[in-house]
Design brief:
Blueprint (H helix, E strand, L loop, with lengths): L8 E4 L4 H14 L2 E4 L5 H10 L5 E3 L4 H12 L5 E5 L10 H9 L3 E4 L8 E4 L7 E5 L4 H11 L6 E6 L5 H14 L8 E3 L2 E4 L8 E4 L4 H14 L3 E4 L12 H9 L1 E6 L4 E6 L8 E5 L7 H10 L3 E5 L11 H11 L2 E5 L3 E7 L6 E3 L5 H7 L8 E3 L12 H9 L4
């Protein structure tokens, strides 16, 4: 091979949606937090609008994170009445575990239509209660919603997690963000066994917080590099990250030979393919800690004709769509036959790729972006491409930039 230096295209990704949304709630609760590199995702912009709204009825459309976080936030706004509603799909996404937990803390919340689902009417109250139990196997966002308001409760909050914990890194992120903005209390913010403890926080020191770029968004470019064997440089990433989806660094190196080089000074990462990498015959992995990148992994493996068996995906059934069913339907168009359960997907065989493929997105931003890298090897049409606005509004601009010839 030529020893010429590799010329990489560079993309600066927006701040993490997950970190942004947590900090926006804390900023509104405690005021003296300055946030930099805020996510431009539609979810985050809807959350900002809701937190600054004087209206009684707030429509958060498809933004599931906003629905969960705002339910807890408005529940402790004494004297304020709020109606939270959303899209048709949002009204199908359960919220009962969080509502039940808040009610057990003294909150007053009523279902307006279907029991256990949005829309809901919240009558804000103060509370002195400080202990609650909640199932940990449905959505980490329910628990994070409680974590974020815990410091504002008069006696703090102790959360006992019941059943198997899913997406634990997202809970660790929530707690670490809280420790960063409240360093004087970090030793009292604990997660021991299945108990999360948060002390009462009367005030916070002023804190400037620069949000790291979004690792979930980076996953689509890892997929592109794995399929195309091109090289890329991505901006504003840290070697030690709060985001669980940073696990894709190891996942893509182990299964696809993608090397990640960190530049700690520029805070960039460079992605390159390992020469003569020997692909595995089967990818077998539990993605309970990083379910949001499962779709991307499935598409990458399909493009490279590598069989996969992924479990730990129970939360995918209650996302913007039932992602396991959506994946099964759309992967079949790419020639990948699969079997699914309530928490897993497994490839069974590869057949010929269909002609004139049109990928349905099911109003799910991750379906659109996860399937995009397959375009490198086969032309496909992606329906409703604008759904990417939910988490990555500039995705198609960046995609066009990396796939066009030249610099």
């Amino acid at each position: 091979l030529s020893e010429k230096p590799i010329i990489m295209k560079y993309i600066q990704l927006s701040g993490s949606k997950s970190e942004t949304n947590r900090l926006l709630i804390l900023q509104k609760l405690f005021s003296n937090i300055e946030i930099k590199n805020i996510s431009n995702a539609q979810d985050s912009q809807l959350l900002i609008k809701a937190l600054n709204s004087c209206e009684e009825t707030i429509d958060i459309h498809h933004a599931g994170t906003a629905m969960r976080f705002l339910t807890a936030f408005f529940a402790i706004q004494d004297g304020k009445t709020t109606i939270l509603t959303g899209s048709k799909r949002m009204k199908q996404r359960p919220i009962a575990p969080l509502v039940d937990a808040l009610k057990n803390l003294g909150a007053e919340i009523h279902y307006i239509e279907k029991e256990g689902y949005p829309p809901i009417k919240i009558y804000g109250k103060t509370t002195t209660l400080s202990r609650v139990k909640i199932s940990a196997n449905i959505s980490s966002q329910f628990i994070t919603a409680l974590i974020l308001i815990g410091g504002k409760l008069e006696n703090g909050l102790q959360i006992e997690l019941i059943e198997k914990i899913t997406s634990r890194p997202y809970l660790e992120m929530s707690l670490e963000v809280l420790r960063i903005v409240a360093p004087h209390l970090k030793n009292k913010i604990t997660f021991i066994d299945n108990i999360i403890s948060i002390p009462n926080i009367t005030e916070l020191p002023h804190k400037d917080y620069t949000i790291e770029s979004d690792w979930s968004s980076a996953s689509y470019f890892y997929s592109y590099v794995a399929i195309s064997h091109q090289s890329l440089e991505l901006g504003n990433f840290k070697r030690v990250s709060l985001q669980g989806d940073a696990s894709l660094v190891n996942i893509y190196e182990i299964f696809f030979g993608i090397k990640t080089q960190f530049d700690d000074i520029k805070q960039t990462i460079s992605l390159t393919s390992t020469k003569d990498f020997v692909y595995p015959k089967l990818i077998k992995i539990n993605m309970n800690d990083c379910p949001d990148i499962a779709q991307t992994l499935c598409v990458t493996a399909t493009a490279l004709k590598i069989h996969f068996e992924i479990n730990g995906l129970s939360t995918l059934k209650v996302k913007e769509t039932d992602r396991l069913v959506a994946l099964q339907n759309e992967l079949l168009k790419l020639g990948c036959h699969t079997e699914i359960t309530n928490d897993s997907i497994k490839s069974t065989k590869f057949s010929e790729i269909r002609k004139n493929i049109s990928i349905k997105t099911y109003d799910d931003h991750r379906m659109a972006m996860a399937f995009a890298p397959f375009r490198y090897i086969h032309p496909i049409h992606i329906e409703n491409p604008e759904v990417v606005e939910k988490s990555y509004p500039n995705f198609w601009v960046d995609w066009d930039f990396i796939t066009k010839k030249g610099m």
